[in-house]
Amino acid sequence: MIGGKTQVLGVIGHPVGHTSSPAMQNAAIAALGLDYVYAAFPVRPEDLSQAIAGIRALNFRGLNVTVPHKVGVMPLLDEISPEARAIGAVNTIDHREGRLIGHNTDAFGVMQSLRLDGGLETLPARVALLGAGGAARAILYGLLQRPEVEHLALLNRTPEKAAALAADLDPDGRRVFPGALDEKAGELLHQAGLLINATAIGMSPHPDASPLPDPSCLHAGMVVLDIVYNPLETLLLRQARQAGARPVDGLGMLARQGARAFALWTGVEPPVEVMRAAALERLGKSSP
Ligand code: ATR
Question: pLDDT tens digits, residue range 96-108?
């Protein structure tokens, strides 16, 4: 029950109507019986600074931040975590003792998902990461925190963007090897023990697309994580399953980045399975 002491959480974005965060977060709040509520707030870019001032004025406990505000929100906050600073984007605001602290929980979410959903206690020495946008950047940051990753192929339709991202996060060029995502990448992909799709390829309404030029690079012993979760089993994950590789869907990462935000705000570890199930149910309702 919402009462006089209920603490307010939410997500700001534009548009924000399709987000599964309210379903996930409210499911966790209900499961734990905590006195919080989580809502979605559509905020136009020109209103962003007023929305942030509103967190302070209305004493919201915290917010998630989604497209298009993840970068624009940074100068409006009092503090940015080292992780969010390196990733260059904020997806969670923690309102603590009058200060607004920006975090990014995406790298944590993907690393937890690789460990707990993909069974990778340690990562393979060779990894292939597809994409060079905001999602790829957070994942690359997470992967580079792990010393066992020795060779990271960063492949993108536009190779210049992969090169720029690699130079930014691995300035010595010792571990990240940028290139084009084309037929010539087959051998590099084949050598990877972990393949991550951080592009939007395969997402509804184009579920018949795969980011791989040729699926024959997939093999048993490989873990394949797709950040796309609509459909839950993308063509890439189906190809991975058929090749004997271990598929990991994008809902684990989504639930785990949300769980990390929840723990920051409430101080309580939420039930990730409850959050995942709520997101899955929401997805079923929002599909055509
Ligand atoms: P996000 O924040 O979700 O990562 P983004 O920053 O727009 O979104 O990045 C989208 C990524 O998906 C990019 O790597 C993009 O490739 P380009 O840099 O070449 O644009 C990739 N991508 C999206 N649609 C694609 C398509 N149809 N084919 C190949 N790559 C695609």
Answer: 999 999 999 999 9
Closest ligand 1 atom to residue 161 Cα is: 18
> What is the spatial distance between Cα 158 and Cα 203, in angstroms, rounded to a whole number?
19
Ligand 1 atom index nearest CA of 157:
19
Q: Note if 285 is an active site residue.
A: no
Instruction: Please indicate, yes or no, whether residues 243 and 135 belong to a single structural domain of this protein.
Output: yes
CA of 16 to the centre of ligand 1 (A): 20
Q: Which helix (H) or strand (E) holds 152?
A: strand 151-156
Report the distance separating Cα 250 and Cα 110, nearest Å: 9
Per-residue pLDDT tens digits for 41-77:
999 999 999 999 999 999 999 999 999 999 999 999 9
Based on the fold, state whether residues 15 and 95 are members of the same structural domain: yes
Residue 262 lies in a domain: yes
5, 70, 161, 184: the catalytic one is 70
Domain harbouring 225, CATH code? 3.40.50.720
Give distance in angstroms: CA of 133 to centre of ligand 1: 6
179 Cβ closer than 6 Å to some ligand 1 atom = no
Could you tell me if residue 112 is inside a domain? no
Q: Read out DSSP for 209-242? A: --S-S-GGG--TT-EEEES--SSSS-HHHHHHHH
- Ordered strands of the 36-42 beta sheet: 36-42, 7-13, 62-65, 92-96, 99-103, 79-80
**Matching residue, tokens 């090897």:** 177
96 and 20 in a common domain: yes
Indicate the pLDDT class of residue 287, thresholds 50, 70 and 90. low
141 in the same domain as 208: yes
Range(s) of the domain holding residue 95 = 7-104+252-282
The pTM score is 0.96
| DSSP secondary structure of 69-94 | -TTTTGGGSSEE-HHHHHHT---EEE
- Establish if 214 belongs to a structural domain: yes
